[in-house]
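User: Design a sequence. Structure:
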């Protein structure tokens, strides 16, 4: 008697969960949210390690740490991006392989007004962000457990583009940089304490490097950190803080190296 064929078991799906602000949605000026951002690019890299990996994008353009935590910016059935992510993690135990997070840029960008840095705004914004971030990352880890590879991102400094506007702009670029570096330091420490990996985008964008030089078409020779903002974001050409597609590729490279 011929053996009875046994149907191959259908493997359960595995997931990459992407959280954050407009960087996580792949926002491009004039286009809105796209599929060219770092999560979509990173999916193809991570998929080589985990065949059948599916991307779940919960990011929200304009999200702050407060709105990610409590809601109010984008509509989620659960009430907030964090609650939606926690619900997904709990509904898919052991099937979420990767989680990436970028949040905090919108918390501090509001402190730059009219080409100047509002010093009174900065410290309260950082204080609120660090408190919210700790709550966010610990709740995510509690819901997802130890099998998820969690990675959080540091930020580049879009204010460096003010270097092109003259002496006052150069002062703003210079003053803003240690503040961004300090913020990224706080965030990195929290990520590491919570058991996350850190995708150091600040380093990729050479945020603190005013000494290195690079030539950018239309602008000539610039400090390396300013040049990378011009090359990898829309700040110099359009006054828009978002990364270009190439900028998203650089962010993808940074995540892929540690995720």
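Assistant: Done.
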């Amino acid at each position: 008697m011929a053996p009875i064929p046994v149907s191959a078991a259908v493997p359960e799906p595995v997931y990459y969960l992407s959280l954050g602000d407009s960087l996580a949605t792949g926002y491009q000026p004039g286009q809105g949210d796209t599929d060219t951002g770092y999560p979509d690019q990173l999916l193809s890299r991570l998929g080589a390690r985990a065949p059948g990996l599916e991307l779940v994008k919960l990011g929200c353009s304009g999200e702050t740490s407060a709105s990610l935590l409590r809601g109010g910016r984008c509509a989620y059935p659960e009430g907030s991006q964090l609650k939606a992510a926690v619900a997904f993690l709990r509904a898919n135990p052991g099937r979420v392989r990767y989680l990436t997070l970028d949040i905090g840029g919108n918390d501090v960008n509001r402190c730059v007004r009219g080409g100047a840095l509002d010093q009174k705004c900065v410290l309260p914004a950082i204080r609120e962000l660090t408190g919210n971030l700790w709550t966010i990352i610990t709740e995510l880890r509690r819901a997802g457990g130890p099998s998820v590879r969690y990675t959080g991102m540091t930020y580049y400094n879009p204010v460096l583009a003010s270097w092109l506007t003259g002496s006052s702009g150069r002062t703003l670029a210079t003053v803003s940089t240690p503040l961004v570096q300090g913020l990224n330091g706080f965030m990195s420490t929290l990520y590491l304490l919570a058991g996350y990996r850190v995708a150091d985008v600040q380093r990729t964008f050479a945020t603190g490097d005013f000494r290195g030089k690079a030539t950018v078409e239309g602008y000539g020779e610039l400090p390396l950190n300013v040049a990378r903002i011009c090359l990898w974001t829309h700040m110099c050409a359009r006054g828009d803080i978002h990364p270009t597609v190439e900028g998203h590729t650089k962010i993808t490279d940074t995540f892929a190296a540690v995720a």
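The chain is about 45% helix and 15% strand. The mean pLDDT is 94.
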